[in-house]
């Protein structure tokens, strides 16, 4: 228990400090990619596209199904009416009543003519009078009646069937091509979503870095004004400065305090935004690895737009959309073509009719071809027209996207060139502002200039530092946007 408590306390101490470790830009990117819900959604869409392709492949193989039916019927099926059944079941008695007198007369005549012996006459009379012939015929009639009365109270039917498409107008091939394109499209959408996440993290990261620099600058400026205010107060006591000088310095000091407050608030909000994009708690305490070096990214003197088009994910996605539109045209055209299917099945039933009507379970195999030839299908014709118009729309969208991307790339390239010039000018101004502030402080200490002149030098120094910070971030972001526009991110 003691060891468990120690481990738990160490864990509770270390967990809050995880975010306090300095985070680099790559650390922020990795955190964002792991926690972003849109990235997770893209993973699911990739899996969905793969499953759709599996479905398309499976459609080429035969489909096997089993069915079972049980039916209970109130009545049987009788092919004879009650009157007909009664007449057939008494067929022997009816024939016997009609034949016996005629046979008796014929036998008597034959006996008188001497054609039959007395023993034969007696045997025939016994046969006709015994009723066995009528009984046998009645039994045969009853069998016929029973055979034509089908017991349909309980019916059991089972079947296993197989169907294999042979030719369905190219529908299966078009469906497979569409599924393959959907896999490629899902991959491109994942890459595009990943790119958007990284761009958003970079924006938030450099915004925090910029505000950290400005907060530090505001603190330095506030320190300068605090020192100046102390000097002016001493000069006022020595009666070498006026209250007007003191008021000007205090106004600037108050403004610096407000700027410091705004910079602190802005930095806190910017860190909350970065924390949200990195999947960290909004109140997480973290520090960033600051890169204090100034970078001047060169613009591109010439850009090969064909290479740009081959790299831009949007162009690839629109190209896939155009190919998908072609596949949909073929899919729509397949509805106007013949379909040929092969089928095979094995069916069992009870009762069955394979050997007369039989109350046993028996079955049989069957196989065949199913051919469907569309003759008149106006709906499919209009669906084909719609698919062709969609294909034309995809081509137009592709050309329009190329035109917009060309403008976008040249615009960002120009903005990078301008940002580099701004950075160069801001650095030059900063050197002059630093030198000017140094001279102004020395002159003020020697009593050669007033506090207003020193305030002007400090303000110019603050503005020059702020311009350098802004220009540096602008160069970085312009270069980032240009690489994104060129498909190099």
Helices and strands, with pairings:
Blueprint: H1 2-18, E1 22-23, H2 25-35, H3 37-58, E2 63-72, E3 77-78, H4 82-89, H5 91-112, H6 118-130, H7 132-147, E4 149-150, E5 154-167, H8 171-237, H9 243-277, E6 287-288, H10 305-311, H11 313-334, E7 339-350, E8 362-372, H12 378-445, H13 451-485
Description:
The protein is of the alpha+beta class. Among the domains are: 74 residues; 158 residues, Outer membrane efflux proteins (OEP) (Up-down Bundle). The chain is built from 13 helices and 8 strands. Strands 2-5-7-8 form a 4-stranded antiparallel beta sheet, with no helix packed on it. Helix 5 runs antiparallel to helix 6, helix 5 runs antiparallel to helix 7 and helix 8 packs antiparallel against helix 13. The protein is rod-shaped. About 3% of the residues have low confidence.
Please give the CATH class of the domain at 293-337 and 377-489.
Answer: Mainly Alpha
Shape: rod-shaped
Poorly predicted parts: 7-19
As for the CATH topology of the domain at 293-337 and 377-489, it is Outer membrane efflux proteins (OEP)
Gyration radius over CA: 50 Å
Strand adjacency order, main sheet: 2-5-7-8
Quickly give the CATH architecture of the domain at 293-337 and 377-489: Up-down Bundle
The CATH superfamily of the domain at 293-337 and 377-489 appears as Outer membrane efflux proteins (OEP)
Strand content: 5-15%
Number of strand elements: 8
Helix content: over 70%
- Biggest sheet character: 4 strands, antiparallel
Q: How far apart are the first and last residues' alpha carbons, in Å?
A: 52 Å
Order of helices and strands: HEHHEEHHHHEEHHEHHEEHH
- What is the residue-mean pLDDT, rounded to a whole number? 85
> Which class do the helix and strand fractions yield?
alpha+beta
Q: If helices are DSSP runs of H or I spanning 4 or more residues, what is the number of helices?
A: 13
